[in-house]
Amino acid sequence: MGIPSERIERLLTLAREAVVDGEYDRSREYVALARRIAERNRCGLPADFSRRTCDDCDVYLRPGKTGRVRLRPGRVVVRCRECGSTARYPFE
């Protein structure tokens, strides 16, 4: 685990804490910064990080607060309450 990976993990925890405190703009900044670090260093984002953030508005998704999670047959549907975008993930 290199320095960029450590920074991305730290930014994930900071984004989570910012959403808990109700600071959605700060959370967006942390997520955008983590994405830029991953692009610049070509290390990629962890799978849980990309599923816990909205691809359109970069807010950290927390069920019940900024995201809506629904189970459908064969998939999980996650909807962002900030911008309304929907992501679907396969599930068995």
Account of the 3D structure:
With 92 residues, the protein is of the alpha+beta class. It has one domain (3-90). The chain contains three helices and three strands, in the order αααβββ. The chain has a three-stranded antiparallel β-sheet, with no helix packed on it. β1 (67-72) and β2 (75-80) form a beta hairpin. The longest helix is centred in the first third of the chain and has 19 residues, at 3-21. The radius of gyration is 13 Å and the shape is globular. The mean pLDDT is 91.
Strand order of the largest sheet: 1-2-3
* N- and C-termini, Cα separation: 31 Å
Shape: globular
Strand content: 15-25%
Low-confidence stretches: none
Q: Provide the number of structural domains.
A: 1
Write the H/E string, N to C.
Answer: HHHEEE
CA radius of gyration is 13 Å
Secondary structure layout:
Elements: H1 3-21, H2 24-41, H3 47-51, E1 67-72, E2 75-80, E3 86-90
Antiparallel strand pairs: 1-2, 2-3
Helix pairs in contact: 1-2
GO molecular function, one term: ribonuclease P activity
Organism: Halorubrum rutilum
Keywords: Cytoplasm, Endonuclease, Hydrolase, Metal-binding, Nuclease, tRNA processing, Zinc
Quick rundown:
Helix content is 46%, strand content 18%. With 92 residues, it is of the alpha+beta class.
Features:
92 residues, three-stranded antiparallel β-sheet, alpha+beta
